[in-house]
Design goal:
The strands form two sheets. An eight-stranded parallel beta sheet has the order 3-4-5-6-7-8-9-10. It has a two-stranded antiparallel sheet with strand order 1-2. Helices cover 43% and strands 16% of the residues. β1 and β2 form a beta hairpin. By secondary structure, the protein is α/β, with parallel strands linked by helices. It contains 16 helices and ten strands.
């Protein structure tokens, strides 16, 4: 079924993904189809495109951070208020589509935070949707663009429910995701929102187990009835959690460089994605925050291979996992 994704025509010859890894040929690796299912578009764009169109240079971090405060400091220096208006918001969407095309990403999942509807799109859901689709049609019409509803975990539930009113019933959206400080409020508070999201046929996702524990991952999946978890790497610390994810078919959309540079994993070689994959948990490889972590998807595959964390055969299986169509339960 997915045979067409295994070998890709390059300069008149078919190039195997595994061969591109073994040859350490990044140009050829970028031509192989892949997915990016965990991309925060505000930090997910092509830095050269942003520099060329705005004159703003954004340098990634290179030394692992020791706290979230350091991440916020980086954001204040590099992003600040420069992109905090509707015109620049659209530019960041464009930059993400440019980046996806350059990196051979054929399935891209991105979306706006619910509070951004009023701030950047005149509180008009049709305008928000059309902005993403216009960027797609003008810059990368071939990509499978999956629109996501984003929510910040620190926001009050009543406020989020009010913001979500315009999103419900819009079939253009594929998924919903919860992100931000895992300790800001109990995950159980979001059950009413996820119940509504399930009724609307959305794929249910949440950031859990990046900063929290394996028990947090299980609790979040059970309470919110999640289909997928963003990060979820803490699950590797518990055999019970690993079995639970495997037996219930819960996919983890992992962002390895982000985990290393934010101090959640010591180094790439020991990244828990290998433990998860080898124990039957479905995982995908993703970028997360490209501008922050210099982490496009091809680089992520290469770094996992070069470090010895995963073999080329294992990475090929993971790549194909990300390209499979998937529906909400």
């Amino acid at each position: 079924m997915y045979r067409r994704f295994r070998r890709v025509l390059v300069g008149g010859e078919y190039m195997d993904f595994r061969q591109a890894l073994r040859n350490r040929d990044m140009d050829q690796l970028r031509r192989v189809p892949k997915s990016d299912l965990h991309n925060h578009f505000v930090l997910g764009g092509n830095r050269e495109y942003i520099r060329r169109t705005t004159g703003v240079r954004i340098d990634p971090i290179v030394i692992p951070l020791t706290s979230m405060d350091e991440m916020h400091q980086w954001n204040n220096v590099n992003m600040g208020g420069r992109f905090d208006n509707p015109t620049m918001r659209k530019l960041l969407i464009d930059a993400t589509l440019v980046q996806a095309k350059a990196d051979g990403v054929t399935v891209l999942e991105i979306g706006e935070d619910v509070w951004g509807l009023a701030k950047f799109f005149s509180n008009d859901i049709a305008e928000l949707i059309s902005t993403f689709h216009l960027s797609q049609s003008s810059l990368y019409p071939e990509v499978e663009l999956r629109l996501q509803i984003g929510m910040s975990r620190h926001c009050p539930i009543d406020y989020l429910m009010l913001c979500l009113d315009q999103f419900w019933g819009r079939t253009e959206f594929y998924s919903i995701d919860l992100y931000g400080d895992e300790l800001s409020q109990p995950i159980k508070n979001f059950v009413p929102i996820y119940r509504m999201a399930k009724e609307n046929g959305l794929v249910l996702k949440a950031h859990i187990g990046e900063w929290g524990t394996a028990d947090d991952v299980i609790e979040g999946v059970e309470l919110l009835e999640l289909d997928e978890v963003q990060h979820g790497i803490a699950a590797a610390q518990s055999r019970t959690a690993v079995r639970y994810l495997r037996d219930n078919g819960i996919r983890l959309n992992v962002a390895p460089s982000s985990n290393v540079l934010l101090g959640r994993v010591r180094d790439m070689k020991r990244h828990p994605i290998s433990t998860l994959h080898r124990n039957g948990v479905e995982v995908t490889v993703n970028s997360d925050d490209i501008l922050l972590c210099d982490s496009d998807v091809s680089k992520e595959y290469f770094r996992l291979y070069e470090s010895g964390c995963l073999t080329d055969d294992e990475l090929e299986e993971i790549r194909l996992n990300g390209l499979k169509p998937r529906k909400a339960k």
